[in-house]
Amino acid sequence: MKRVLIAVLLASTSIATIAQDRFADVEVTAEHIGGSVHMLIGAGGNIGVSAGDDGVLMIDDQYAPLAEKISAAISGLSDAPKRFVINTHYHGDHTGSNAFFAENKGVTIFAHENVRMRLASGEDVSPAMLPVVTYQDGVKFHMNGETVHVFHLPDGHTDGDSAIWFEQPDVLHTGDLFFKDMFPYIDLGAGGSVNGYIQSVEVLLSKIDDDTQVIPGHGTLANKADLQRFVDMIKETNAFVQSKKVEGLSEQAVIDAGLPEKWDSWAWRFITEERWIKTLYQ
Hints:
Blueprint: H1 2-23, E1 29-34, E2 37-41, E3 47-52, E4 55-59, H2 67-75, E5 82-86, H3 92-95, H4 98-105, E6 108-112, H5 113-120, E7 133-135, E8 138-143, E9 146-153, E10 161-166, E11 171-173, H6 194-207, E12 213-215, H7 224-246, H8 251-257, H9 273-281
Parallel strand pairs: 4-5, 5-6, 6-7, 11-12
Antiparallel strand pairs: 1-2, 2-3, 3-4, 8-9, 9-10, 10-11
Helix pairs in contact: 6-7
């Protein structure tokens, strides 16, 4: 029994070491977007930050092993207290540092109700990582001389998606409703859907103009034209796959045939062409 326990402990230690090593060389860098708003890039979802005299508001917080690096990068922008975190959805590359900021920096975590529900139902859940303020439709912040609109978009990437618009500097953080120049991940098992995703992106497009700067969930800083090109890709590839399905082709047959060549560059490590076709076919 003792040997089994030791083996389990050693395995757990090895997994933790691998997780730490994975992020050992990650640098968290900041890019000023406008007004009080910055974009932090590290590993995982892009972080939005409003830093000013009223304190720091964060949008997402990437993976837990990066928490101290993220905190240090923000401290380089402002020595004001870190006050709020908004989770755009529940995935770990956007919520992983929740507990660190709640326990060590005293931040209050905000999210849609479904985000708290899904985080709470996970394994090894620390109460500190859960949002303590939840909303159904949205919430508004007034800080650092700016108005920050947070609004829920249902049934897109997940069932708990929020987007955040900084009104005065005109900056939109989309969460994972936008993967710039990449096939998106649509979490079909967590309330996401292809049609819902398209509708959510079209809502975002209706709220912005050509001057709006867009922080995607993943990828480099973007604009409305980039977001339009993204949703056009989803519509066209979806129409292509659905037409093959109507013709009677099986999922595997569509995968074997592949998408038109012009979409080759959109595939990436996590969402390959095969995985994107499977999402569309379902």
